[in-house]
Amino acid sequence: MAMDNYVGPFAVPPTSLATFHTIGVIVGIPIYDATLVLLARRRTGKTVACRSLQRLGVGLALSVVAMACVSAGDRG
User: Fold this and answer.
1) pLDDT tens per residue across span 10-58
2) Hey, which residues does 6 pair with through a beta bridge?
3) Least packed by Cβ within 10 Å: which of 11, 23, 29, 76?
4) Is the dihedral of CA 24, 26, 29, 34 positive or negative?
5) Please, are residues 36 and 30 in contact by the beta-carbon 8 Å criterion?
6) Three-class SS string for 26-38?
């Protein structure tokens, strides 16, 4: 089974898929800093709302949830 690399009428080369991940990170980090970190600081009243280990744990938990969603969608 091969990957379907068409997005609408466009064919995306498989080697360029890593670019989408990089662009997503570049766009996502400022949004994360502007929204979630600001809300966490307001809620906790501290300048550092979450420690690095907590952020790592949340990131790993989100990875597990994302993989579970992909797995559920892949079975169809």
Assistant:
1) 998 888 888 988 999 999 989 988 898 888 888 888 887 778 898 889 8
2) 11
3) 76
4) negative
5) no
6) HHHHHHHHHHHHH
Report d(CA 55, CA 16) in Å as an integer.
29
Tokens of 1: 């089974």
d(CA 15, CA 31): 27
Owner of token pair 């992909």 = 70
Q: Which amino acid is at 3?
A: M
Report d(CA 61, CA 69) in Å as an integer: 13
Contact 1, 7 (CB under 8 A): no
Position 51, amino acid:
R
